[in-house]
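My main concern about presentation is that the manuscript never shows what a single data entry looks like. An entry of this sort, consisting of the sequence and the corresponding backbone structure tokens, reads as follows:
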Amino acid sequence: MREEITIVSVGRHTRLGDVLERAVSKHKIETVSASELSGADWQGRRLLFAVSCGEGGKDELPALIRRLNEGECDLAGSACAAVLDAGEDASAHTDLLRLLLAANGAGAWILPKPCVEASRDLKNIPAMYGAGRESLYERFCALAEALTKRLSVFEPASLTTGQTEGEPAESGAGRVRIALPLENAAAVRDWRSALTREFVFRGMEPVEAENKRAEHTFLLCENTSGLPDAKTLAVLDDPRGGGLRAAVASPRLGAELFALLVLDRACLQGSYCLEPKAFTLLEGVSAQEAFAGKAEFERVKSTVKN
């Protein structure tokens, strides 16, 4: 992965500029516009999306998300984080989640806690609170600096070698927890057996959920009510983190929205990083139906292979 941080500028940074300048002052950087991501090689980069939802950003952000979803941008092996000034846009947080999900679908890793989001009152913070060490503006700048530092040192290889702190690296692709927070016991049994075989075939070591040394988690969950249930939340809130992949069986409509909720809880609020192309969305089928259906079963297997 390249050393410098690439700032992908979305919108006009009338309020975010000063924060950005401080956040990247200690790093090598390059700055590109959102449109420059299309049709070029952006593999192996450290990408910081700088999004201002005021003038210009309202149109640029949806256009960027669309291009990512349509496969115009190759972000394979890159790592992504984001700084957001929502302005007066109440939907900005959801749009930011869509951006991260689209970047992940284009091949990028998503860092744990990948976002720093400014309040709509960012412009007034220095005047309201002064420039003291504890002002909201200073705290926001500190969070942005910490985010860029984590982005600058993130290395996906540490998740795939089985290496833990203080131990030498091991061969293989690491250990994986198979998390199946499903109500149907037969579906749990069938999927655990099939996924265990698939991971072993791929050179990974499936471990019990209690094992604290797994570098990866594979989550197969169901969208039955529009919100993650308690069992799914328990997986997403696991403080051990590591790399996450997820298959969402959705007997009701809304698999993509459910995936955004998983991303928010697991990465923005939790300790997971999202592995490239992490989500498989199975719209219109339950977990048991997905196991019985050849096309859906193969799609879940393809997530294991990535």
About this structure: Residues 120-132, 161-172 have pLDDT under 50 and may be disordered. The first strand starts at residue 5 and ends at 10. The chain is about 40% helix and 25% strand. The radius of gyration is 20 Å.
